[in-house]
Amino acid sequence: MQVKSVNVAATRSYLINGRSVRSGIGKRPVAGPVGIGPLGLVGDEQADHTVHGGLAKAVYAYPAAHYAFWQTVRAQARVGAWDEPLPFGSVGENLTIEGLLESDLWIGDALRLPGCVLSVSAPRFPCFKFAHVMGFAQAAKLMVQSGFCGAYLGVLEEGHVQAGDLVELHPGPREVSLIELFRSRSR
User: N or C: which end of the chain has fewer CB atoms below 10 A?
Assistant: First the structure.
């Protein structure tokens, strides 16, 4: 497994269904090492701390493998071209990771990187902001149906992260899988 992209964003306002909503979902890739503390990456912000951020949801990781799916469904929804690549960070993730899938993860697993250690804490549940940035109303429903939710991570050891870092998965207690938790809460 390898970090393909490290993505951060300041919060900003989006006009969604006629109202102004603040969000930090518009992540963009950054170069070089990025500091990571107990509340997440340096330079990254979350607007709604009831569902994003905090100690248990400091970092959001997403599988790079799912980007082809989102590019295809955006083209089918006619909000993106078939050959238009979707930039990493578009799903709102801090870390885009190659070789990582939700089916590999359990709550409490540790992800060891050269500069930090992260812990799988929860699946991400999509909201209306995700549908807005993807450009079509059914995006949140498709995330639930596909199970392509990604994982929230807590920070076990502070440090830094950068694109190209190798990621080692160290199994935790293996009592509740990320997918089981996602499916049970999505019903």
Answer: C
